[in-house]
Write a structure and sequence with these properties.
By secondary structure, this protein is α+β, with helices and mostly antiparallel strands. It has a single domain, classed as RelE-like (YaeB-like fold), CATH 3.30.2310. It has 3 helices and 5 strands, in the order E-H-H-E-E-E-E-H. A hairpin with an 8-residue loop joins strand 2 and strand 3. Helix 1 (9-25) packs antiparallel against helix 2.
Length: 97
């Protein structure tokens, strides 16, 4: 069964910031492509939510999935994928959750 997903307000802001950064440093085309790639990975999580790696030592209810240089932080609850954050791999996940 394919799950639906929900982006938290922070995850939506993360996506906006990713788009802006990519646009400013590369191009509109690249920014659109990268955000679509992140959203595609979230759709893949909806088909197979267990493919993400558990965050046992930080937040046991959550999992992470890497997309290029970013990490999708999510949990499965009430038959939905709840995306809490989309963080750059260099960011400290623990301090941003």
């Amino acid at each position: 069964m394919k799950l639906e997903f929900r982006l938290s307000n922070l995850a939506q802001k993360d996506l906006e910031n990713i788009w802006i950064y990519t646009f400013e440093n590369w191009s509109r085309k690249q920014a659109d492509k990268y955000v679509k790639e992140i959203l595609k990975q979230i759709e893949i999580l909806c088909d197979n939510p267990q493919i993400g790696r558990p965050l046992l030592n930080i937040k046991p209810t959550h999992r992470v999935r890497k997309v290029n240089t970013h990490i999708i932080v999510y949990k499965v609850a009430n038959n939905k994928i709840h995306v809490d954050r989309i963080l750059h791999q260099r960011m400290d996940i623990k301090n941003h959750l």
